[in-house]
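#onboarding

Welcome to the new folks! Below is a worked example of what a typical request in this channel looks like: someone posts a single protein sequence, and someone else replies with the predicted structure as tokens. Don't worry about understanding the tokens yet, we'll cover that in week two.

Example request:
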Amino acid sequence: MTDIGRNTPRPSRERTLASIATGRDTIPVLVRSQDTTDEIERAIARISEQMNSNNHRTGLTTAQNAAGIAEMLDLGVPVERVSKELSVKRKAVKLLGAVGRREAARASLEEQGLTIEQAAIVAKFFLMWTSHGEPQPGSDQLVVGWCHARADREDRRNRVLGGPGRVRW
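Example response:
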């Protein structure tokens, strides 16, 4: 079964290479049961397993790691848990999460060779630049900003879970 069902096989490339290395004619399949039926927990497990596997095998770029960390944070995973699951320092998780949410900041990591800290500044700039208008004296800008932030968070969560937009990482 796939990760949609109750059991998931190990990635096929790893199984194939292990079979070749041990001189086997067949490729064994390890099937394990899902620990949870919670959709968010499955998404968190899927993302962290993919990131750990890909970083171990070939190494993800910093921008790819930032995107994955941002998705985990968008699902509501605490920084401490992301740090533990991916073996990344908490400060780096916070910076990569900020960078991962902004395409321009991720692109600046790869195209301009910025550091994580510099890309986080780019992300903060784009967040301020794309905010919804100039604050008016006596306006309820904070309430409006909070509502937009909540809507943005829901949009990112739906994207990660394959919700209305059906786009997955």
